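My convention is simple: the sequence line spells out the residues, with the fold written below as integer tokens. I include a record here:
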Amino acid sequence: MSDPTNRQASTLVRNPVLALPAVRALQALAPELRALLAVLLLDLRRDARERSEKNWKARKAFMAAYWSVVAVYAGHIAGALSNQQSGRRTPKMIVRQDGYPDLAARDWTEASDFYAARRDHSGLGASRFPDASVLLADIPVGRISYNGRIWPPTPWQRDMQPIHDNRIATPDRPQTRQL
């Protein structure tokens, strides 16, 4: 019988993903990359929880259960990557733009909103206001364009989709504009 005070046993009960051999490979990644993956997985967890809640309210139990499980797994893998038992917090998104101080954002929506507020306050107009970068653990993960949409940090391609589209409504931000 295992000792209930055994720290490793209690950690595995709280996060069974830690028992998988592939987790050791993930934990061997560079700290910056682990932090980046953890933040993205926590973002995935939040989005999955929102979808689960929306499906429960619409009485779509199977889809609600699916998204709930996605949220749990994303959180467990993020915990394995970020080594939560050490007490270190995952980094915030940083909006970095030439000529302006960095801004810390909670999520994609807040990063887009900060950029838009700064653009509107500048008086330069959208066409002359410079793009910004979104960084996690000092790694560029997005580019905010003149209209506040956040794109992958790669060169633009014809069929590219934004990471975050500020025209789309979210639970905390109802739709105010037509697409």
User: Anything to note?
Assistant: Residues 174-179 have pLDDT under 50 and may be disordered. The chain has two domains: 13-86, 93-151. The longest strand covers residues 139-144.
